[in-house]
Design goal:
The chain is an alpha+beta fold. 31% of the residues lie in helices and 31% in strands. The two termini are 19 Å apart.
Length: 176
């Protein structure tokens, strides 16, 4: 299951993946992935690192992750975003991609990695907790769906120095 950086050649596969994201997942994304300009930005080089998990059998994108850097006095913080195709969940794809994104962020020098998850998405919260993230905040009514319904967000974070020091001690945190 290869994980690699998204390239301009991924245009059709990325667009197919993005239009397949269910509304209940898309509402938690910070960008409107149906907007052509947003997708074009995803395909261009920039400050945000975007990774894809690509299916071995048909070069289909199964999941995407991005690492968005903080700015100014928060430039030591990166926000990790993860979306897995609804039909490909519970296969370890999200975990594998999240791990790769986390290692990529650590290699880039970020000291804190955050992730925002819908409060009702317990499976995703559990995935990130299993990767060393801890809950930091509950943002009530943070997201509004197209129909006006409001949803809570949980912010989880990983303090890289603490987590990776513990993992390295037992041989699991190598960032080679």
């Amino acid at each position: 299951m290869p994980v690699r950086q998204i390239e301009p050649e991924d245009d059709l596969a990325l667009r197919a993946f993005l239009v397949s994201i269910p509304e209940q997942d898309a509402r938690f994304l910070k960008e409107d992935l149906t907007d052509q300009e947003v997708v074009d930005t995803w395909l261009s080089a920039g400050r945000i690192v975007r990774l894809a998990h690509v299916s071995d059998d048909d070069d289909r994108i199964d999941a995407v992750a991005s690492i968005a850097p903080g700015i100014g006095r928060s430039d030591h913080v990166a926000e990790l975003r993860l979306v897995v195709d609804a039909d490909r969940r519970r296969r370890g794809i999200g975990r594998q991609l999240a791990q790769k994104a986390l290692v990529t962020a650590v290699r880039a020098g970020y000291r804190k990695i955050t992730v925002e998850v819908g409060a009702a998405q317990q499976g995703t919260i559990d995935l990130f907790r299993g990767l060393g993230f801890t809950p930091e905040a509950l943002l009530r009514d943070q997201v509004r769906a197209d129909d006006g319904a409001l949803f809570d967000i949980v912010v989880l974070a990983q303090l890289v120095d603490q987590t990776w020091e513990a993992l390295t001690t037992i041989g699991e945190g190598e960032v080679a």
